[in-house]
């Protein structure tokens, strides 16, 4: 069968960040492209992930900002938070963004099927409506879903998906998990006035982050009033007559709550898609195994983004979608470099990082030097707030190359993006030292460490 015998050159399953980028770029290269999405165009990040969550982060920051305003001469007679107003405004923004993503596909003449599909062959798909379509290449970009515990009372918990639709703000929130999603929502709910308890099965949160930075976050969070239960787990969750929840715990005392949020990881969305039946090779967690060109064990089927369970970050999925389209339809073979991916945790305060942690650098390079700046931001000084920021450079002692930057403090992710360029470019500590500081800023600490 020739390429002209197929209905489409490319059929993308999933209209998230990676899928939309791949579809748009492939269409721009002249390919006949279709996309199937059973939920909303935009995927996890836009609809129920990083975008609406960041808007909640912005909203939560006003709690302390309004308190601090008095020391800067502002009279704020009443501080009252209305959850429904923020929730509805965030959902309206999500709806607007979904429309823009849809317009992007339409403007590039991409055919959109708003329904579920199942793969029935290496080049064939069956739509929920009953229609069968064929494609020269199939790209799986269906992302991942929140994992849930197998415990009694599982039906009483929520995931990050449901947070954006809560009818009211819970007074007591228990959050299961120690990753970035758990810590971000801990900060959000705490600033909105909820009492927050984080339950983690080990004694380590934010695994893979620099230990000094994580330790600082824990200390700040505890000082704010967030409760941590380490080395603990859930035996069962009971719903009481008044609607409250009782968490029967293992390794710690039982906890009463109004809402229980599980953020214990995300699993690839490969179930009931026909992949196993076709012989597409999957990992134990259900991720699609791919090569450097995103090709699965079946030559005509590819995958990008969270469904491959490598680096579950939106910008990575976008970069993969672009590389796939350029390679397969643009005549520009492209591989993604995963060696220096910046990331952040929008906790309160936020964390930004790029490159190797101190322990990772020691294991990989041997002898390293570290430089730290532990300071109280100027705004906190005048506001009478004792919270301190911490910046850290990890340097290869042999080459003087800055191999890692780790930060916790106000606007750390915003500052980190520019600093990530320096790590990616393999600049040396001497280059940082030779850069004149921009004063007065927090970012200037990056070039003042000696």
From TrEMBL:
What cofactors does this protein use?
FAD
Give the enzyme's EC designation.
1.8.1.7
One of its GO biological process terms is: cellular response to oxidative stress
InterPro entries named in the record = FAD/NAD-bd_sf, FAD/NAD-binding_dom, FAD/NAD-linked_Rdtase_dimer_sf, GSHR/TRXR-like, Pyr_nuc-diS_OxRdtase, Pyr_nucl-diS_OxRdtase_dimer, Pyr_OxRdtase_I_AS
Q: Which positions in this protein are listed as binding NAD(+)? A: 177-184, 265
Which PROSITE patterns does UniProt cross-reference here?
A: PYRIDINE_REDOX_1 (PS00076)
One Gene Ontology cellular component annotation held by this UniProt entry: cytosol
**Span of domain Pyridine nucleotide-disulphide oxidoreductase dimerisation:** 341-449
List residues of the FAD/NAD(P)-binding domain.
8-321
Q: What Gene3D superfamilies does UniProt report for this protein, alphabetically?
A: 3.30.390.30, FAD/NAD(P)-binding domain
Q: Which organism is it from?
A: uncultured Sphingomonas sp
Q: What is this protein called?
A: Glutathione reductase
Which family is annotated?
A: Belongs to the class-I pyridine nucleotide-disulfide oxidoreductase family.
Write out the GO MF terms: flavin adenine dinucleotide binding; glutathione-disulfide reductase (NADPH) activity
PANTHER family in the cross-refs:
GLUTATHIONE REDUCTASE
Q: Which NCBIfam families match?
A: PRK06116.1
Catalytic residues as annotated in Swiss-Prot or TrEMBL? 439
Cofactor remark from the record: Binds 1 FAD per subunit.
Paired cysteines (S-S): 45-50
UniProt keywords, alphabetically: Disulfide bond, FAD, Flavoprotein, NAD, Nucleotide-binding, Oxidoreductase, Redox-active center
